[in-house]
C-alpha cells in the first residue's frame, strides 16, 4: 500500500493532512491487507485509542485521527453535519491510498460517525463496531443540552468537567488514577466552540432510518457503567440495525481509555468472526 506521495508507511506515521477542505491530524500504523479506522468520542482525540491501536496494528493497518474540531485538527464554527464527518474519513482514506473496504470502530459520537460512513459509503465499509453510539438526542433532552452548551461556550470546558467525568468516567473505573487525570486534563483542553458545534451536530442528527438500511456486519457495545448513554440506549441502536450483534462489557462512556484491553478483545473477536 502506498500513500498519495508514493511513500510506504513504516510502522507508525503521524501526520497533518489537509483533506475535504480541513486540516486533520492523523496517524497510520501497522501493516497488512486489512485496514481499520478508529474514531474517538466527543471531547476526545486520537490519543483516546493509545492503548488499543497498537494491538490492532500487529495484524492490520490502523488509521486514527482527530475529528474536525477536536484535538489538534482544524477547529470548526457554524453548521456541521455527519455527512461532512463521514466525508472526512473518505478523504483521509483517499489521501493514504487505502482502497477497498475498511472496518471501522467508534465510540459515542465516533460511533455515530462510523455508522454514518457505512451508510453513506456502503461500498467502502466491511464491518462496524461501536461503543455507546451517540446516534441522536431524545427530544426531551435537547433543550437542556443546548442550554448547557451555551454555558460551556461562554465559560469554557471547566464548567462541565466534573459532571462529564462523573457520568462518563465512573469512579469504579478510576483505579488507574494517572490514566483518569490524564484524560480529564486532555478533555479540559478542548476548544469550547468546536465542542459545542459537534454537540449541535448530534442534536440535529436523525439516524434511525439509515440504521435500518445498513448492510455490513455491525457490533454495538454497551457499557454497564456508562451513565451518559446507559446500556439500554446502546441495545436500542442494535435492535434498529438488521442482524446487528450486541455485547455489554464492564466499562463507561470513554471505554477506549477506561478499559482498552476488554474493548480490544470484544472488537477483535467480532472483526475476526466476520472476516473484516
From TrEMBL:
Keywords: Hydrolase. Residues 34-243 form the Serine aminopeptidase S33 domain. The keyword Transmembrane does not apply. Transmembrane segments: none annotated. InterPro entries: AB_hydrolase_1, AB_hydrolase_fold, AB_hydrolase_sf, Hydrolase_4. One of its GO terms (cellular component) is membrane. GO terms for molecular function: hydrolase activity. This is Serine aminopeptidase S33 domain-containing protein.
Amino acid at each position: 500500500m502506498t500513500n498519495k506521495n508514493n511513500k510506504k508507511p513504516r510502522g507508525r506515521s503521524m501526520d497533518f493532512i489537509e483533506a475535504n477542505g480541513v486540516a486533520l491530524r492523523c496517524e497510520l500504523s501497522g501493516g497488512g491487507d486489512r485496514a481499520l479506522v478508529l474514531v474517538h468520542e466527543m471531547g476526545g482525540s486520537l490519543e483516546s485509542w493509545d492503548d488499543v491501536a497498537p494491538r490492532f496494528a500487529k495484524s492490520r493497518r490502523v488509521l486514527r485521527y482527530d475529528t474536525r474540531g477536536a484535538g489538534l485538527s482544524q477547529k470548526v464554527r457554524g453548521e456541521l453535519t455527519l455527512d461532512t464527518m463521514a466525508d472526512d474519513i473518505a478523504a483521509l482514506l483517499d489521501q493514504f491510498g487505502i482502497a477497498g473496504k475498511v472496518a471501522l470502530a467508534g465510540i459515542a459520537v465516533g460511533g455515530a460517525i462510523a455508522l454514518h460512513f457505512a451508510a453513506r459509503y456502503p461500498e467502502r465499509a466491511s464491518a462496524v463496531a461501536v461503543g455507546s453510539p451517540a446516534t441522536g438526542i431524545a427530544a426531551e433532552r435537547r433543550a437542556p443540552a443546548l442550554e448547557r452548551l451555551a454555558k460551556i461556550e461562554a465559560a469554557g470546558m471547566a464548567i462541565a468537567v466534573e459532571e462529564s467525568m462523573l457520568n462518563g468516567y465512573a469512579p469504579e473505573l478510576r483505579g488507574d488514577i494517572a490514566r483518569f487525570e490524564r484524560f480529564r486534563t486532555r478533555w479540559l483542553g478542548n476548544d469550547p466552540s468546536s465542542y459545542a458545534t459537534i454537540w449541535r451536530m448530534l442534536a440535529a442528527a436523525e439516524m434511525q432510518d439509515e440504521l435500518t438500511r445498513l448492510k455490513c456486519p455491525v457490533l454495538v457495545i454497551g457499557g454497564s457503567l456508562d451513565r451518559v448513554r446507559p446500556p439500554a440506549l446502546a441495545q436500542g441502536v442494535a435492535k434498529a440495525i438488521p442482524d446487528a450483534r450486541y455485547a455489554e462489557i464492564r466499562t463507561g462512556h470513554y471505554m477506549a481509555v477506561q478499559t482498552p484491553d476488554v474493548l480490544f478483545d470484544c472488537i477483535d473477536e467480532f472483526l475476526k468472526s466476520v472476516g473484516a
